[in-house]
Amino acid sequence: SDCTGYPFPTAPPVDPFAKIRVDDCGKTKGCFRYGKPGCNAETCDYFLSYRRIGADVEFELSADTDGWVAVGFSSDKKMGGDDVMACVHDDNGRVRIQHFYNVGQWAKEIQRNPARDEEGVFENNRVTCRFKRPVYVPREETIVDLHLSWYYLFAWGPAIQGSITRHDIDSPPVSEHVVSIYKYEDIFMPSAAYQTFSSPFCLLLIVALTFYLLMGTP
């Protein structure tokens, strides 16, 4: 029989890519959202979800970009020596799932790709994808065991002829603590545009300015 790219020999659905559900975040899957408060998988600057399915972990990624979106698994919060899965929008309109290994600040593509059940779409200037990879893998420097906890590195950026280039922002977001696939959280991280007044100093400054304006000058 022909290989259609679908896991079962049935006719493909009308919409082959099911939209990412955020109602499940923190319940049946873990989520990270970066962007505007209250954003979802279609409006966040960056979105990632993970959930265990048997011997696999299913990941869903989406970002406001026409190039690529990725997640890195790191032993620290810095880029370098990291296992990276990226969803790349190529010139033919397809979204391919690729495996990289960060060598310093440079991402090297690794031919051994642990992704399976891959699917992706480019719509509304967003790259969105879904794939699974095994929880356990044979000892391999470039592929980590996901049953262990790692810092998650979140990145996205442009692509040139299907090849990734430097990420969009100088300091991409990183999970505050190591992430366990056995614990489902729903974590929101405000993007730079929404961090302006989040510090205690800024809040005190706002209070002081408000008091000054209300009282007026002598």
UniProtKB/TrEMBL annotation:
It comes from the Eukaryota. The chain crosses the membrane at residues 197-215. One of its GO terms (biological process) is regulation of postsynaptic membrane neurotransmitter receptor levels. Signal peptide: none annotated. Keywords: Membrane, Transmembrane, Transmembrane helix. Residues 44-159 form the DOMON domain. PANTHER family: DOMON DOMAIN-CONTAINING PROTEIN FRRS1L. This is FRS1L protein. It comes from Motacilla alba (White wagtail). The gene is Frrs1l.
